[in-house]
Amino acid sequence: MHGRLLVSISSIFSDTRGAVADMVGRLDAAGIPVSLLVAPHIDGNWHLAKDAATREWLLAQQEAGRALILNGFDQAVQGRRSEFATLEAHEARLRVAGATRQMRKIGIETDLFAPPRWRMSPGTLEVLPDFGFALAASTRGLHLLRSDTFLQCRNLSVGEGFGAAKWWRRNVIRAAERGAARGNTIRLSVSGRNLADKKVAADFFRAARAAVAAGAEPGDYRGVVSGMPLGT
């Protein structure tokens, strides 16, 4: 059975929007859907509600049918502990409530959730169904919350607390190609912070193309919720 390719981009804000839009365009042209990880705050300083250009771009993407994934409340800068990695249910509930409320005011509605760096505590996973989320993505795989189903498929990340050096990117390309050839579901993600580097952008695009060439069928994270078949 063919596996699937799920591609996502995080850290989308004023300084990265141009490079992110370029990569989205390249992937779209190659027939590879990309899901966008969005947060109301990044690094404690940037606020989506105050960035009209980024807000309008994201709303246009949503209107065009792009899959948007809530990426926490305050997607932290590299070096800080991941926001939802160790939270108990009570604190996770407060942060998810704040994030969903602020995004709703902006006009962004999604039932997909992924914590920063994909690191999610049991307490976070516990409260997500109460907010209507259908899917949560973690380092381990994909949690289908309405059916209480777990699909194991690790994420191959570039940047955002993970590697971005040439050797790391080379390993990501190889892992994507090998996994696709085995019929596995391949999850590729990149930080918008790293896409300004043309070599990083080129290698990330190459990884996505390699997975498709090896047999992975491109889709987005909404397809998981709607029941698209996934490889192992």
Describe the structure.
With 232 residues, the protein is an alpha/beta fold. It has a single domain, classed as Glycoside hydrolase/deacetylase (TIM Barrel), CATH 3.20.20.370. The protein has 7 helices and 13 strands. The strands form 3 sheets. Strands 1, 2, 5, 11, 12 and 13 form a 6-stranded parallel sheet that branches. It has a 4-stranded mixed sheet with strand order 7-8-9-10. A 3-stranded mixed sheet has the order 4-3-6, with no helix packed on it. Strand 8 (135-137) and strand 9 form a beta hairpin. Helix 5 runs parallel beside helix 6 (198-213). The longest helix has 18 residues, at 89-106. The chain is globular. The model has no long low-confidence stretch (mean pLDDT 93).
Described by the principal axes of the CA atoms, the overall outline is globular
Total tally of structural domains: 1
**CATH homology group:** Glycoside hydrolase/deacetylase
Distance between the termini: 9 Å
Percentage of residues in DSSP E strands: 15-25%
Largest sheet, if any?
6 strands, parallel
- The percent range for helix content is 25-40%
